[in-house]
Amino acid sequence: MNHEVLIKTTNLVKQYPMGENHLTALKNVNLEFKKGEFSGVVGPSGSGKTTLLNILGTLDTPTSGSAELLGHKVEELSHKASAKLRNQSLGFIFQTYNLFPVYTVFENVEFPLILLGMEKMARQQAVMEALEWVKLTDKANVRPAQLSGGQAQRVAIARAIVKRPAVILADEPTANLDAENSYNILNIMQELNEQLQTSFIFATHDEKVIRYLKRIIHLNDGLVVKDEWVKS
Ligand SMILES: Nc1ncnc2c1ncn2[C@@H]1O[C@H](COP(=O)(O)OP(=O)(O)OP(=O)(O)O)[C@@H](O)[C@H]1O
Ligand SMILES: [Mg+2]
Predict the structure, then answer these.
(1) Sorting pLDDT into bands at 50, 70 and 90, what band is 231?
(2) What CA–CA distances, in Å, run from 152 to 66, 86, 111, 125?
(3) Which of 82, 139, 158, 168 would suit a FRET pair with 52, their CA atoms being 20 to 30 Å apart?
(4) Atom 17 (ligand 1) nearest CA
(5) Can you name the residues that pair with 50 across neighbouring β-strands?
(6) What CATH number does residue 75 fall under?
């Protein structure tokens, strides 16, 4: 496989049991994501965006077909191996921030580095660099409850970027933010994409996010109906 291809799906199908039948959330999805992309999966509510992102992120497995992450078929990995691969190469940003409430901002951003076994001095430096990216060094010692929504999402970005993953998956990251905060985090993510070549894959129906995307993948009822490059 071309090493520039970070994620690849082949005939990906995802079904959920529903009574005696099943619901097909993804229908034969074939996609490739390369290094440095700033892409988004868009489509109406229920079209399969979150399902697709979760499978790309190894948080879920396909019913049939395959999803490859950095050359590894996700469905063939053990639970432990997929957790390790996910922790090393992926960052996640969710609609609801998902920060640990009892940890400080610093500790939230530090957490993935502890999982990676990084030593303390290196962790300290990486966390402060990540907080500089999102302009929150002054909030290092506060807890998430003391942050605004925009600040909380910037902590989530710092936590995603701190280990310098190949890909960041962001599911509706602006859904709880006003326009100003949405543009603020989009500008940060665009800068990270341009300066660190971190790939971003969004799931969104927010027009503000869509304006920033270089590639738009349109999902409808579990099918990719259009895949277009809108900027180079
Ligand atoms: N765990 C689950 N069990 C059963 N059905 C599910 C499950 N998760 C999602 N679905 C169904 O799969 C379909 C796709 O859901 P998904 O969450 O991927 O949509 P989405 O495009 O992210 O929607 P939204 O824009 O509302 O977030 C929906 O019909 C949903 O009801
Ligand atoms: Mg969703």
Answers:
(1) confident
(2) 34, 22, 15, 20
(3) 158
(4) 50
(5) none
(6) 3.40.50.300
